[in-house]
Amino acid sequence: MPTRDIVFIEGLVLETVVGVYAWEKRIHQRLVMDLEMSTDIRQAAQHDDLEGTLNYAAISEALLEFCHTHRFELIETYAERMCALLLAQFDIHHVKMTLRKPGAVPQATSVGIKIERSREVSA
Ligand SMILES: Nc1nc2c(c(=O)[nH]1)N=C([C@H](O)[C@@H](O)CO)CN2
User: What top-level class of enzyme does the UniProt entry assign (predicted)?
Assistant: First the structure.
């Protein structure tokens, strides 16, 4: 029976080069990510074994590395590309990502996007 199990990461701070404007291409800015990843944790819990679940430390490392080695103008591009990376490299069925760019609009606490992506089911 399918589960509704979630492994999550909240408030992951990613330093990267991001922005539409010329001045933004010369600095590093912070993006802050919340992530919910659907998986099945029953095997891991039964055997008390990290191999059977999503390793949130390894996933955080992969996202930090991605942001160190890429630069895009839009946070949409970061979100889309990082969801694709997660679905390709980890046993995730469905991912919900919130990506914030705090400080982009000084009058707002934060701005950003929320997306959800699922692994393609092959026919
Ligand atoms: N939907 C978006 N709107 C805006 C973005 C973005 O990435 N997605 N980016 C900018 C600028 O880079 C802005 O953050 C500079 O303050 C504007 N709008």
Answer: lyase
